[in-house]
Amino acid sequence: MLKARSVLSGIKRRAQVGNLKMTMAKISFSSIPVIDISPLLESRSTPKVQENSNTRRVINEIDQACRNVGFFYVQGHGVPLDMMNQVRQLAHEFFTLSTDEKYKIKMSSASGWRGYQRVGENVTKGVSDMHEAIDFLQDYDGGDFPAFLHDHPLHGRNLWPETPTSFRPVCKEYLSAVQEAYCGKSCILAGGISLDLGKRIMQAISLALTGVHDSFEGSRAGSPFWLFRVIGYPPLERKITEVGCGEHTDYGLLTLVNQDEGIRALQVKNQAGEWIWADPVPGTFVVNIGDMLKIWSNGLYMPTVHRVLNDNSKYRVSVPYFYEPNFDALVKPLDSCKQVTGGESKFASVVYGEHLTKKVLNNFK
Ligand SMILES: N=C(N)NCCCC[C@H](N)C(=O)O
Ligand SMILES: O=C(O)CCC(=O)C(=O)O
Ligand SMILES: [Fe+2]
After folding, report:
1. How far apart are CA 347 and CA 292, in angstroms?
2. Ligand 1 pocket by C-beta < 6 Å: which residues?
């Protein structure tokens, strides 16, 4: 008990130091940290973090990355490398199909903005993005769609391509690997323990921000909404006026990006306004924080602006998975975060699903 309390005050002290740093001088990052999160996954259920110096170190590394960079690479995450590679490989195969074939799963309002969109169809700040993609959002097909959302614009069922034939099963397996209850043969966890990657990282963030592991469970993110994008970026033709994906922040809690190896394209904006490359680090996910963490942390964690420029001769694939709050979560600054940031809420409260819907409807002309 005593021990737990001293860790807690240690976390609070760091929070205050971090905040001072933020207000005194904006330090600018020049690289993105790599964090081995395996200590977070070692325990069967919730890690007893207060008692383990390794988990404490990881929590601190994640906290520092969220405060100073908004991006980090994770390794030791337990998702098999083969599976990460296979998903991107199948995406490459899909994008080489004819437009007619790809349009069999064309995105529309009827599918709740799920499905295939051709190059230029996604728009960021009014400008067409030079990527094609299949967007998947948590399926709400009438059965499990909450009654209050029945006429909702994001109501719909995912559209899965028939070719390549293994696309759907492999992506489904991948989704369960990143989000829940997965333990494949090369997974680091023994004995069918759930991985819950997004949730484990959120538990670490919860400990850093509030001193307890479950601040984002229950009505905040206990039934997390998710999005999954399979994106293809052709090499840019008009390099000066085109962008693979315009600068933006992500909408929710955490994004886990699985990107092609050996090709640099993702750029992250630092506090000085310089673009820092998020070069691929084989076997890792690039993780970044979204708009909802800005509000919950009252600005301690700011989502970092990023963009994609495929200024290469090769076609690039990336596969982001978005781990989000509950669709109906009311997001407002946490008391413990307000206490270390001057006592006032710096951001208006939002309902996550409303924020997401506005963003999605703005992404298509
Ligand atoms: N679910 C996420 N985060 N998607 C990001 C998509 C790229 C930016 C988007 N066109 C925009 O303007 O936000
Ligand atoms: O392709 C990438 O590396 C990132 C894509 C992205 O930022 C997004 O879809 O939100
Ligand atoms: Fe993004």
Report:
1. 10
2. 122-124, 129, 227, 245, 248, 250-251, 322, 359, 363
Nearest 5°: phi and psi at 303? -70, 135
245 C-beta closer than 6 A to ligand 2: yes
> Distance from the CA of 359 to the center of ligand 1, in angstroms?
7
Residue 312 φ/ψ, nearest 5 degrees: -130, 175
The model's pLDDT over 75-122, given as tens digits with 9 standing for 90+, comes to 999 888 999 999 999 999 999 999 999 999 999 999 999 999 999 999
Ligand 3 center to 99 CA (angstroms): 25
Residue type, 96: T
CATH number of the domain located at residue range(s) 30-361 in this protein? 2.60.120.330
Contact 202, 74 (CB under 8 A): no
Q: Is 55 helix (H, G, I), strand (E, B) or coil?
A: helix
Quick check: helix, strand or coil at residue 128?
strand
The owner of tokens 């993005």 is 129
The tens digit of pLDDT for each residue in 45-68 reads 555 555 688 999 999 999 999 999
d(C-alpha 144, C-alpha 220), whole Å = 19
Cβ of 257 closer than 6 Å to ligand 2, yes or no, is yes
